Amino acid sequence: MSFSPLVDRLMESLRVLPGVGPKTAQRMAMHLLERDREGGKRLADVLAMAVEEVGYCRRCRTLTEQDICTLCESARRDDAVLCVVESPADQLAIEDAGGYRGRYFVLHGHLSPLDGIGPEDIGLDQLETRVAEGGVEELILATNPTVEGEATAHYIATQLAPLGVKLSRLAYGVPMGGELEYVDGGTLSRAFNGRLPFQSD
Amino acid sequence: MSFSPLVDRLMESLRVLPGVGPKTAQRMAMHLLERDREGGKRLADVLAMAVEEVGYCRRCRTLTEQDICTLCESARRDDAVLCVVESPADQLAIEDAGGYRGRYFVLHGHLSPLDGIGPEDIGLDQLETRVAEGGVEELILATNPTVEGEATAHYIATQLAPLGVKLSRLAYGVPMGGELEYVDGGTLSRAFNGRLPFQSD
């Protein structure tokens, strides 16, 4: 871009961040160099450490630098319910929503034969072992409501059904706070088919 | 937030970036850890190097890791015109606009007696020395069109007038491509007062 190779490289490097284009990268670089070098130093240190040390939890495969993640180690979660998600981001969303007190299992993706992603790549052997060990009464298949997510949920259900575990899937329907006018047709027809008896409080 | 102290620290650290709140920081952390560790590693390295090594150009005070910045060293710029800006970001904006072929001088701020920012803090002694050395015929005072920027430009003009250099200021007026309806009153009256003879091509 201009006057300093290293500043240019910094702007370029910041663009690995999602949603950061050239203008935003420039603003970020200027902010860090002009106003918050200490914060920039801290970010560099933590980021270097994180990409180096963060791996998968041995038990649930979520992102963690520990052998077993904090959530798996917590004594306050219910071992009888296991929620299967596609990504740690999905897990965070469910945790942020609050209310769920069971454990998780993170696939890091979904089945995709065309991309060569098979059951062992998303840890299904490990999931099967865990369910077979006993203790899990319900398996919530919280993969995404997409074609790939549905197919993955279906595959897991087929594989684990013989183990006698109760299998469930998140409810489909119209999102809370939305307006019907703007809900897509597919969601709307699922919501119609899955309609429930009206309950007055 | 959740399951890994280091991932939490990474999300927290990403928030030093301007415009990055908790949700964006989470998305960035997940993206780097799940999909682009190499980019994350590179960003960490470059950022650590930049906050450590980038200083001010000895000649124009812009951000650079070199003793003299690339632009000051370039033989293809006009030594006779010197543009004074408040920040390297302003300099980048002018460079991106194209057309200007002179040199720069970066103040890194503006005069602000209440905050204890005096002439020496924004390098005015250095600017005066440079102009006194000769060679600079025109000094463009491109500080921001704000109260502080105006005051700073006025102060510099007063100090350097005795040196016999030609002083100029960027034109005020309605921005290109804007609609008059949405231009603020101050800008509009400056544009009226500064109106120019109509030129047909």
Automatic annotation (TrEMBL), chains A, B:
<comment type="function">
    <text>May play a role in DNA repair. It seems to be involved in an RecBC-independent recombinational process of DNA repair. It may act with RecF and RecO.</text>
</comment>
<keyword id="KW-0234">DNA repair</keyword>
<dbReference type="GO" id="GO:0006310">
    <property type="term" value="P:DNA recombination"/>
</dbReference>
<keyword id="KW-0862">Zinc</keyword>
<keyword id="KW-0479">Metal-binding</keyword>
<comment type="similarity">
    <text>Belongs to the RecR family.</text>
</comment>
<dbReference type="Pfam" id="PF21175">
    <property type="entry name" value="RecR_C"/>
</dbReference>
<dbReference type="InterPro" id="IPR023627">
    <property type="entry name" value="Rcmb_RecR"/>
</dbReference>
<feature type="zinc finger region" description="C4-type">
    <location>
        <begin position="57"/>
        <end position="72"/>
    </location>
</feature>
<dbReference type="GO" id="GO:0006281">
    <property type="term" value="P:DNA repair"/>
</dbReference>
<dbReference type="InterPro" id="IPR000093">
    <property type="entry name" value="DNA_Rcmb_RecR"/>
</dbReference>
<dbReference type="InterPro" id="IPR015967">
    <property type="entry name" value="Rcmb_RecR_Znf"/>
</dbReference>
<protein>
    <recommendedName>
        <fullName>Recombination protein RecR</fullName>
    </recommendedName>
</protein>
<dbReference type="GO" id="GO:0008270">
    <property type="term" value="F:zinc ion binding"/>
</dbReference>
<dbReference type="Pfam" id="PF21176">
    <property type="entry name" value="RecR_HhH"/>
</dbReference>
<keyword id="KW-0227">DNA damage</keyword>
<dbReference type="GO" id="GO:0003677">
    <property type="term" value="F:DNA binding"/>
</dbReference>
<dbReference type="InterPro" id="IPR006171">
    <property type="entry name" value="TOPRIM_dom"/>
</dbReference>
<keyword id="KW-0863">Zinc-finger</keyword>
<dbReference type="Pfam" id="PF02132">
    <property type="entry name" value="RecR_ZnF"/>
</dbReference>
<keyword id="KW-0233">DNA recombination</keyword>
<dbReference type="Pfam" id="PF13662">
    <property type="entry name" value="Toprim_4"/>
</dbReference>
<feature type="domain" description="Toprim">
    <location>
        <begin position="80"/>
        <end position="175"/>
    </location>
</feature>
<dbReference type="InterPro" id="IPR034137">
    <property type="entry name" value="TOPRIM_RecR"/>
</dbReference>
